[in-house]
Amino acid sequence: MSVDLGNKRIIMIHGLGSKPPVEVMHQLWRSALSENIRVSHRLLARSLDAHPEVFESVYWADVVPHHIPDDTVYCRKLKAQVDKVIDERREIRDRFHVGMGEKVGSFFKDRGLDLVKLLAGALTVKDDVMTGLMRETELYDQDQYISDQMRAPLEIALRKAWDDGCEPIIVAHSMGSFIGYDVLWRFSHRNTKGFKRYHKKRVKMFVTMGSPLGDPSIRSMLFATHHRTHGARQFPTNIDFWHNYACLGDVVAHHKNFDEVFYRPMRALQLFPASKKFRSIDYVDLHNPFEVVTHAGNRRREKRNPHKSYGYLVQPRLGSWIADYLLDRLL
Questions:
Q1: DSSP type of residue 209
Q2: Among 73, 173, 303, 321, which residue has the least CB neighbours within 10 Å?
Q3: pTM
Q4: Residue 187: which residues within 8 A CB-CB, separation 6 or more?
């Protein structure tokens, strides 16, 4: 199968917390997405292997004053855990999502997981995850210089993609999702240099994973909050498809309200192209198989962190939608 990937760009933006160096993170995200696609689209995945330039990482962690990249030992353990996530995706194939009429408890029991223990384990990582979220969102909200620096890599990547004639998508995790939302809003509405000439440019797909955008306190920090009664200015106007993914037990993404606060009003304002179904989808109760990496600062017994990006990147529906994008099936 011959696939023309020349105008495709998958721009990936990470979330909160400590991070591996940018080259390690890029390789792990690229591997998880490529192997996800490979399960059902082997020839397409081969084309991606031959065109690594399709994937681009935008990295903002190094502008946070307290940021220290993960060390080599941790990165090696992290890679092993990501490989386990990929192996599980291959093994259970498309059964990562609670189906229609299926009980949540039975779904996880079929995977050898006790739902009560799974959620209790998620709560044991809650404090660490939420502490990181609050620390970094406070910086974003209160330090304009740092928030500008957090947004800048994605703004640069989008400008370059559009200037090169590409049709980009954004895959954003956690805090990266509201950074991405703010960036898309700025390209939609700002009339200052560097933004106005891109008002008509669009992203084919905005993918949000483990996103805190459902939280009103997060939305109150965004540029759009100042335009809540101003029609289309309440939202970005440059998104063709917006799909959100929330895993069961993910404390950051516990608000199941994307249809209420985003999708329905955006559809009412006709901000999505009208020619296709499935422009906006909120996938919830997903299975995130990522197991916590044990390290010197983490000696507790929790086994899983359902907020981790790598368990989101192997979600079958995410893989199939990105494959459709790469194959020009999203019209």
A1: E
A2: 73
A3: 0.91
A4: 155, 158, 195, 198, 199, 201, 236, 238
